[in-house]
Design brief:
The chain is α+β, with helices and mostly antiparallel strands and 788 residues long. The protein folds into four domains: 1-47 and 260-407, no CATH class; 70-226, no CATH class; 429-448 and 651-788, no CATH class; 463-640, no CATH class. It is 50% helix and 17% strand. It contains 26 helices and 26 strands. Strands 17, 18, 19, 20, 21, 22, 23 and 24 form an eight-stranded mixed β-sheet that branches. A hairpin with a 3-residue loop joins strand 8 and strand 9. Helix 12 crosses helix 13. It is elongated and about 105 Å long.
Length: 788
């Protein structure tokens, strides 16, 4: 019996080659897209979940309360870990960890910048970053300990045993290699090529030992039976017990969740990368549904061709269940063929997809989970696409069929039209979404930031440059291609330092307001290209400027000064005057509104810190010459450090790399959705034209023109596309409005986005239908009416 069913299914596939090709291609493309997205989603969901203590690992977060707002940060006091583990027995281990740093490594004549972090001793015990050599419990206990990757070991100690060897760091400290890291897991969001002692870093950064200063991250591992809710209740006001003026409340976030759930609003979790996971999961469902609708539509439309077969089978005793099994079996056969082609498509495009998403996804056919994923995808697709045709065909009345009077009921026709509406509704939503996402990304990248990011470069203020910057600045400014030079605590794209220690006459001391702050050198305003709308820039002609300030418009509004220039301002106990008012400019992500900002001159203690950025404005069209000048002067003043630089405009684009990736993926998937929809529309148009061949012939004999006939055949499908748009537009507006609200600066959902998506969908549909319509309209009526 099964063999017979298989033969029948294969014969039908071979007999109807065009429709079989359309079905298999549509399903294969739909399944390939869904498989790619599912691989990406699975990789995102597994990120940071490989740690053995996953369920017990948390990062400590802060809710800081200010006037009318709650700000959430992952930065904590630098002494939190060592104290919190002593004061709360539910916390088994704790470790501070710094942001990613670039540190100069020197061994003999080999020196290069390497990326890594400074962490406390228990870090390697808490997290499952395995060591090839060394003891994770003791490798970072000593201040001069250094754990390096195998890549670094091969670079500096090729052919040698690196354990116990010395590496000079930043040309001032000698550290001993106490461990070799195994290859970093791809599923880790924390990336590093070395780990060094946090205690060593803290000795040169005394500010990190104060409860009122934040910076490092704090990670904790709870005891096996500890309740995170109870721990949260206990640690909530912990900072206030150490600093009575604190406005901070602590809470824990599971470390494995922090990658996907990284955004906070008013002290509450408000999304993050999980939004992209949800979006593309929906897109995968949309595309697979569109492919399945194709199959259902074409199968039910062509059911008249197999009606007599069904009638004969029923007359000779076939049960309804056996017919359902037969048609579902045929559907599964087509699905399995489509699955084979979809896997080949994925293998072909996976390298491109990996490059676009910066992933290293692969098809692991030895992984039971992946095989179950493939099986589940094929079963769901086969049942979804074959269920309605199977039920419809098995319910046909054999008496009506064999009399030759089979007619489709209105309900089945409406159902088929409803599927077309659903199909194009999903496609129009994808087109609309792609258009809006693209426009938002363009808006971000072309928005006036309030400063000129063209011809603006920056490089780290490090090594000997920290001590000799004034002289370095003067000599570099004289070089060809250089317009101006300055330095600052923060780079142009992110001012990460903030303070509530700002006072002014009449301020309510009970109300806390957070101000961003940046320590800068002379010519900062000029070099950045920031517009001053009142007052002046810092000047060497005024010795009092070391205590003065320049503020932005948002700061003036927060303070309540209508004309702030000349007014008194105190920050960190340093009383001075506001000498300049800057026009607001974007110094952080466009996802957030512009914060109040205060600029102050670097003092001696500021300029000798081991961080900072040199900013260089080059003459337009002389970038190459300027880079040569920068390199030669840098090597003269800082010969032991490699010359490194960054372009502000390129780094700005990198800030929105995730959005760019989403935009590109959305456009590719929208195109595929439309293409799959058009495959089904092509098949339906061909079937409709075939069914109405005699009608077309009679109309031609009676004088109908080709234009009239094409319009008659196309009108029904265009009306369905219009109905699809009517349904898709409200849903598209709802979801896209919610997505755009995540941006503080965003485009408006204008009417033309909706019209453009409708016109594009209608034109594509009309082009698809016209081919079959014109072909039918040009057919010789003598041939179509010969049987009459």
């Amino acid at each position: 019996m099964l063999r017979n069913y298989f033969k029948i299914a294969w014969r039908n596939l071979w007999k109807n080659k065009t429709f079989s090709f359309i079905n298999i291609l549509g399903l294969a493309l739909g399944m390939a897209c869904s498989l790619l997205i599912m691989l990406w989603v699975q990789d995102e969901q597994h990120m940071d979940r490989f740690h053995a203590n996953d369920s017990r690992l948390y990062r400590v977060m802060e809710n800081q309360h200010y006037v009318g707002v709650i700000n959430t940060f992952a930065s904590t006091p630098g002494i939190l870990a060592e104290n919190i583990v002593k004061d709360f027995p539910e916390i088994q281990m704790a470790s501070q960890a710094l942001w990613e740093e670039q540190t100069l490594f020197t061994v003999g004549n080999t020196f290069e910048k390497e990326k890594g972090r400074s962490v406390q001793g228990d870090f390697l015990t808490m997290f499952s970053f395995p060591l090839k050599e060394g003891d994770p419990k003791t490798a970072l206990k000593r201040p001069d300990g250094l754990v390096i990757s195998q890549k670094i070991a091969d670079k500096y100690f090729k052919g040698q045993d690196p354990m116990g060897k010395i590496i000079r760091v930043d040309n001032k400290d000698d550290l001993m290699v106490t461990g070799i890291l195994a290859d970093m897991p791809e599923a880790s969001s924390l990336k590093f090529d070395y780990l060094m002692s946090y205690d060593r870093w803290q000795k040169t950064n005394q500010w990190s030992k104060e409860w009122g200063n934040n910076g490092p991250r704090c990670y904790v591992m709870l005891a096996p039976n500890a309740s995170v809710d109870k721990v949260n209740a206990k640690i909530k006001n912990y900072i206030k017990t150490k600093n009575k003026d604190s406005n901070v409340e602590l809470f824990l976030q599971n470390y494995g969740e922090s990658y996907l759930y990284s955004k906070w609003e008013s002290g509450k979790q408000d999304g993050g990368r999980i939004e992209y996971v949800r979006i593309f999961s929906i897109v995968a469902i949309f595309i697979l549904a569109i492919a399945c609708i194709n199959f259902m539509n074409l199968a039910t439309a062509r059911s008249v061709k197999r009606a007599r077969e069904v009638g004969v089978r029923k007359v000779v005793g076939a049960y309804k269940n056996s017919l359902i099994g037969q048609f579902l079996g045929e559907s599964m056969l087509i699905t399995l063929l489509s699955l084979v082609f979809s896997v080949l498509i994925v293998l072909l495009f996976l390298p491109v997809f990996n490059e676009l998403t910066t992933k290293k996804l692969s098809l692991n056919f030895t992984d039971p989970t992946f095989l179950l994923l493939l099986l589940g995808l094929s079963v769901v697709t086969g049942l979804l696409s074959g269920s309605y045709p199977a039920l419809f065909m098995s319910s046909l009345n054999p008496v009506v069929i064999l009399k030759g009077s089979l007619k489709f009921r209105a309900s089945s026709t409406y159902f088929r039209k409803g599927l077309v509406v659903l199909q194009f509704g999903l496609s129009i939503m994808l087109i609309l979404g792609t258009l809006v996402v693209y426009r938002q990304i363009q808006y971000i990248q072309n928005k006036n930031l309030g400063y000129d990011r063209e011809n603006l470069l920056y490089m780290p203020l490090e090594g000997d440059l920290q001590r000799s910057f004034p002289t370095f600045r003067q000599e570099l400014a004289r070089q060809p291609g250089i317009k101006s030079v300055t330095c600052a605590q923060s780079d142009p794209l992110e001012v990460g330092s903030s303070t509530q220690g700002v006072r002014w006459p009449g301020k309510d001391t009970t109300q806390l307001i957070l101000f961003s702050q940046n320590a800068v050198s002379y010519d900062y305003i000029k070099t950045m290209g920031i517009k001053l709308i009142g007052g002046r820039d810092f000047s060497m002609d005024y010795t009092t400027d070391t205590s003065n300030y320049i503020i932005n418009e948002t700061s003036a509004r927060k303070i309540g000064y209508k004309d702030p220039v000349g007014k008194e301002l105190t920050m960190w106990g340093r009383k001075g005057k506001i000498i300049g008012l800057m026009k607001d400019f974007h110094f952080n992500s466009l996802h957030t509104a512009i914060d109040p900002l205060i600029l102050h001159l670097q003092r001696g203690s500021d300029s000798t810190r081991n961080w900072g950025t040199v900013l260089v404005r080059t003459e337009a069209g002389q970038t190459k010459q300027a880079l040569g000048s920068m390199e030669s002067v840098s090597k003269k003043f800082n010969p032991h450090f490699p010359f490194k630089y960054l372009f502000t405009d390129l780094e700005f684009a990198n800030l929105y790399k995730a959005e760019n990736t989403v935009s590109k993926l959305a456009s590719y998937f929208a195109f595929l959705a439309i293409f799959i929809s058009c495959l089904g529309l092509f098949g339906l148009a061909a079937f409709t034209a075939e069914q109405r061949t005699k009608e077309i012939g009679i109309r031609k004999v009676l004088g109908a023109s080709v234009t009239n006939l094409v319009g008659m055949l196309s009108k029904e499908f265009i009306l369905l596309v219009l109905l699809a748009a009517f349904i898709a537009f409200p849903l598209g507006w709802y979801f896209l409005s919610g997505w755009l609200e995540k941006y503080a600066y965003r485009i408006e959902l204008e009417w033309w986005y909706f019209v453009a998506s409708l016109v594009l969908a209608a034109m594509i549909a009309l082009f698809t239908i016209s081919f079959q319509s014109i072909k039918a309209a040009l057919l010789n009526p003598v041939k179509s009416l010969r049987s009459e």
